[in-house]
Every structure is written in structure tokens, then in C-alpha cells.
Design a protein that fits this description.
five-stranded parallel beta sheet; single chain; about 160 residues; about 45% helix; alpha/beta
Length: about 160
Amino acid sequence: MAQIKVGIIMGSQSDWPTMREAAAILDELGVAYESRIVSAHRTPDRLWDYGRGAVARGLQVIIAGAGGAAHLPGMMASKTRVPVIGVPVQTRALSGVDSLYSIVQMPRGYPVATMAIGGAANAGLMAAGILALQDPDLAARLDAWRAALSESIPQEPSDD
């Protein structure tokens, strides 16, 4: 089994429909990952343990999705030097704008690369791109994935 290099974490089970898009991209690219529920508010000890142990366990990127107050990505960034990619999860109350603002407004010293609201697929691609810097095989798979995407776009619109 390949070493797990990406952690996909989310604040609650209800975030999984969004975050599974990151998992699907990583599956497609052959990147090993783990997925965990780690709530900044309801399971703070789990968050601390996950962040403190990330480097020792070999994680190289963490994708953190959260809705509402969305403190998970920033709090995780404060507990590890592993790059954190934040995914604002769309909410009913404010359509995810609250989540976006919470994740993107990090204080100096604790950066979080922030995707668009619901942008877990791009988070998976960003994580793969980071790993591909040191993995030529993954770089080739990512290049092929992007080329296939470009080839799938027609040059002319159709009436179908």
C-alpha cells in the first residue's frame, strides 16, 4: 500500500458530500489519502493530535473543509507546518460566504491556501500539484489528466 501523503479532514459528516470530490480526484490520480472528521469546536483534542502528528505520519498536504464559522483549516495550519488547503463548504444560512471569509482571512504566520466555495475538486488537484513537485510519476499523471480535460472541451458549440 502506498504511503498516505494527503489528509482530507472536515468538521462534520455533512461536509463529506463536498469533500469526497477531493477524494475522487486523488483516487483518479493514484494519490493515497486518508479522510477524517476533525471538528475544531466539537473535537479540539482530535484536531490538536492530528495536527501535531501530521509530519511524523508522513502527511505532506492537508485538505481541510469546513462550513459556518469554518475554523478547522486555520486551526490546523496553526498546529502543523504541513501545507493546508481550505475548502469553504456551502452553508444554508449564508451560502458559504461565511465559510470563505473565515478561511481566507488568516493572520500572518498561518497561511491557508483557500479554494472557492465547494471547491474540493480543485483542492485535490492543488494537493496533487504540490506532491508532483517531488514525484515525476504523479507529475506525468497530472499532466495527462489536464491534457484529457483540455481535449474534452469542444471547439464549437453544439445544439444538442
